[in-house]
Amino acid sequence: MVKVWYINDESVDRSPPKFISVDELFRKTGVEYFKLNIDAYKTDGVLDKIKEERGYSYEDELVFSKDSLADYEEKIKSFKTEHLHSDEEIRLILDGLGYFDVRDGSDQWIRIEVSAGDMIILPGGIYHRFTLGPDNYVKMRRFFSAEPVWLAYNRPSDELDCRKQYVDRLRQGFVAAN
Ligand code: KMT
Ligand code: NI
Prior knowledge:
Shape: globular
Strand content: 25-35%
Number of helices: 4
Bound molecules: 4-(methylsulfanyl)-2-oxobutanoic acid, nickel (II) ion
Helix content: 10-25%
Structural class: alpha+beta
Distance between the termini: 23 Å
Number of strands: 11
Largest sheet: 9 strands, antiparallel
């Protein structure tokens, strides 16, 4: 079950989390969320429809755990460093738990806790980071609209076109298509 809330980088902040809905998350950041049935997503057509409509033609599967990745520490470190990409970051969680943190228009962190069946799409140009949950394990599928050339640009990367375009979209406001 996805959970979304504002976090404060100050470790002294012990106030209870302020949860927001996935609709609010979209309006504030452009991040899209889909709930998939983890037992049926391969055949129920929901994922196929998303892939077709959005033109996701490449995909792969990754397991993040100490045992499954030779460069685990390095990968984990790069994920938790604030960065952006020129393309959408599309992830479907199959098992385990992780946290995507994204910046809202006021540069505040919003945390998105994802587990099995949660599919999220981060727009190109959004600053974000990712950390594993308490079990240090997550299994996910990644989707791409073109052959993946997966480059991460650490903050600050405000001069990039994809960042400028994202900031423009943010200013105009994100409105759901349906
Ligand atoms: C990325 O760019 O791959 C990330 O931000 C981590 C997402 S989960 C592997
Ligand atoms: Ni990323």
